[in-house]
């Protein structure tokens, strides 16, 4: 149990542990890393991911997707009820 906790707390992760941390498949993570979409580096011929960089990247991505504070979202208006047939 202790070894599992230590592995989960590591700063540098491999594809498998980083994919589990992000909740995506290893294949998707490999593709994202290869395309430069997600912060990663190669150690030898294997991809590695720093937990702190992934956290910062996720924060940046979530802020980029938020709508501007000044934009007010109005609820959709209901259509007037038609006459009964």
Please specify the SSE layout and strand pairing.
Elements (H helix, E strand, L loop, with lengths): L1 H7 L3 E2 L1 H8 L3 H9 L6 E3 L2 E5 H15 L20
Antiparallel strand pairs: 1-3, 2-3
Helix pairs in contact: 2-3
Largest sheet: 3 strands, antiparallel
- Element-level helix/strand string: HEHHEEH
- Per CATH, the architecture is Orthogonal Bundle
Biggest sheet, spatial arrangement of strands: 1-3-2
Q: What do the pLDDT scores average to?
A: 82
Low-pLDDT stretches: none
Gyration radius, in Å:
21 Å
Assembly state here?
A: single chain
Count of strand segments = 3
| Number of separate helices | 4
Shape: elongated
Distance between the termini: 68 Å
CATH class: Mainly Alpha
Residue share in β-strands = 5-15%
Kindly identify the CATH topology: Arc Repressor Mutant, subunit A
Structure, described:
The chain is an alpha+beta fold and about 80 residues long. It has a single domain (about 1-60), classed as Arc Repressor Mutant, subunit A (Orthogonal Bundle), CATH 1.10.10. It contains four helices and three strands; from the N terminus they run H-E-H-H-E-E-H. It has helices at about 1-10, 15-20, 25-35, 50-65; strands at about 10-15, 40-45, 45-50. It has a three-stranded antiparallel sheet with strand order 1-3-2. Strand 2 and strand 3 form a beta hairpin. Helix 2 (about 15-20) packs across helix 3. The longest helix is centred in the C-terminal third of the chain and has 15 residues, at about 50-65. The radius of gyration is 21 Å and the shape is elongated. The termini are far apart. The relative contact order is 0.13. The model has no long low-confidence stretch (mean pLDDT about 80).
């Amino acid at each position: 149990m202790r070894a599992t906790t230590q592995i989960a707390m590591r700063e540098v992760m491999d594809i498998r542990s980083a994919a589990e941390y992000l909740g995506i498949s290893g294949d998707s993570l490999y593709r994202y890393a290869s395309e430069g979409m997600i912060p990663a580096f190669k150690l030898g011929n294997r991809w590695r991911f720093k937990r702190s960089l992934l956290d910062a990247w996720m924060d940046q991505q979530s802020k980029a997707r938020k709508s501007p504070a000044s934009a007010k979202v109005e609820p959709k208006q209901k259509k007037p009820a038609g006459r009964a047939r």
